[in-house]
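Thread: quick sanity check before group meeting

JM: Hey all, I'm pulling together slides for Thursday and realized we never actually wrote out the predicted structure for the chain we discussed last week. Dropping the sequence here so it's in one place. If anyone has concerns about the input, flag it before I start.
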Amino acid sequence: MHSLRDGSPLPHVGFGTYPLRGEDGVSAMVSALEAGYRYLDTAVNYENEVEVGQALRRSGLDRSEVMLASKIPGRAHARDEAVASIEASLRALDVDRLDVALVHWPNPSQGRYVEAFEALLECRERGLVRWVGTSNYTEAHLREVLAATGESPVLNQVECHPLFPQQEMLDMHRELGILTQAWSPLGKRQAQYDAPAVAEAAARTGATPAQVILRWHLDRGVMPLPKSGTPERQRANLDVLDLHLTEVEVAAITALGRPDGRLFGGDPETHEEM
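JM (edit): ok, ran it. Output follows.
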């Protein structure tokens, strides 16, 4: 369903692991792997890399069957600290290599979002990571990275859901050969399950509103990363390949977007996390 610009395939839906921690978190992740998820998204700041590694081992799946992605925090944007952060993530996960390493937030006031990306490229050259991505980078940040390194991230993970559909970012990502990943793809507490555009498509197809929204992402070329600790919902969130929306339905859901649609005001130009 998705592929990186080198042609490498990615699962149609990934599994977001925040805020799954402890034994309950491990059990939820094992359940997700048993349901068929093959892409686990974590981060240093999620404080659950150890649990992600434990879940992978407990699942009995071979390491090569599951893609692992993690993110360096804002406090590790300096080159040496970024490399050290990746090395620490590998130890926490107990693996030799990350499939995808991302910069979690650009934190523009620090002015090191290019340096952090360059550090991850160095990690790639050392064989510590397979692909380098970003999270929450704006168009300006991405173009600055491209100008400085001659390379764009393979993916950029951004807030994307019906109230904040990010159409301009999707268009720009396609221009630069960047896959769009969506965090909070269902919109959390602002989920538009009762909106006519979603509810009517669900009624027509017999799908759940959540499935309709996840299919909407796929139809727009977006890889969603839903999180659920409930086995039934995990399976339902994955079971969207046979669901078909019309172009009119996709457009109607996109039209739910609004300028103030962000979940918590997480504008990457101003919001920063260390």
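AS: nice. The mean pLDDT is 97. Residues 134 and 156 are 5 Å apart (CA to CA).
JM: adding both to the slides.
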